[in-house]
Specification:
With 114 residues, the chain is mainly beta. It has a single domain, classed as OB fold (Dihydrolipoamide Acetyltransferase, E2P) (Beta Barrel), CATH 2.40.50. Helix content is 4%, strand content 52%. The longest helix has 4 residues. The protein is globular. The relative contact order is 0.23.
């Protein structure tokens, strides 16, 4: 018989606190942001040493502000105007004096609601 105190349990990973757009800074990680997609611009194809495939610009907002968003690869097909997204472990940078976020190399994006 297994006793509850003797069974192995997987350690629970703490979820990063939600960040607001107003608190994001250029050249810094994005731990967890949730936003609604306001616009998705036309998809274009890029070819570079780091990535080859479809890319689309977009913009989104939360209750604190508006930010640019870069969609890579299959994200360009998955994300639509009106979607509520969660970006985790992403990256924030500055482009043309405006902040832009993406999943970066190691991040993830989930469509929470449509």
């Amino acid at each position: 018989m297994n006793h509850p105190s003797k069974t192995k349990q997987r350690p629970v990973q703490p979820r990063a606190a939600r960040q607001h757009i107003i608190d994001l800074r250029a050249n810094a990680p994005v731990h967890r942001v949730e936003l609604v997609v306001l616009r998705v611009y036309p998809i274009r194809r890029v070819a570079s040493t780091r990535f080859t495939g479809p890319v689309a610009a977009a913009c989104g907002r939360d209750e604190s502000g508006i930010i640019g968003l870069v969609l890579w690869g299959e994200q360009t097909k998955r994300v639509q105007v009106g979607d509520i997204l969660r970006i985790s472990n992403g990256w924030c940078r500055k482009r043309n004096e405006e902040l832009v976020i993406s999943t970066g190399l190691d991040g993830s994006m989930v469509v929470l609601d449509r």
